[in-house]
Amino acid sequence: xxxxxTAGGGNANYxxxxxxxxxxxxxxxxxxxxxxxxxxxxxxxxxxDVYRRVAAGILSWELQRRxxxxxxxxxxxxxxxxxxxSGFGVGPFRLDAPCEVVWVxxxxxxxxxxxxxxxxxxLPGHPARGEESFEVLIKDNAGVFLRIRAFSKPGSWFYAAxxxxxxxxxxxxxxxxxxxxxQLAAEGKSP
Length: 191
Prior knowledge:
With 191 residues, this protein is α+β, with helices and mostly antiparallel strands.
């Protein structure tokens, strides 16, 4: 179930440049002291087909695109060490968020429970310091869930000064991820 792991594992795919403690912490739900945390888990449906569709969408950056983010990446799939810049806004009001994938779980052909997804960490230039992860889980009862975990601190005094606005923006983007996952889960179903 677990593909290449970079956090703590010394994987050669990990390129560095991440400037926060507890690299890879979202893989197991760990967060460094003093960092704000997010944990969202929502039910998406039932069955292996739903699980596979959402896993494919997460691992191909489609979840970010459906959340309304522009995605520039060197890899068509999330793989350890891949760098991605997601951004939102227009023109001079565009905010780019460079990240590096720190862990990936690939889906396995059969069996429940299992989880697939990835975590990425903020690189210099990101408005925050920290990590975010996106996983789809299928449980023993075939229920499929999206889990988003994050821990973060503002990346500069400018973003720290926008405290409430910054947290509101994070909640908004998280809700967009959830909506994107619901869209992926619903594809292929009969009306």
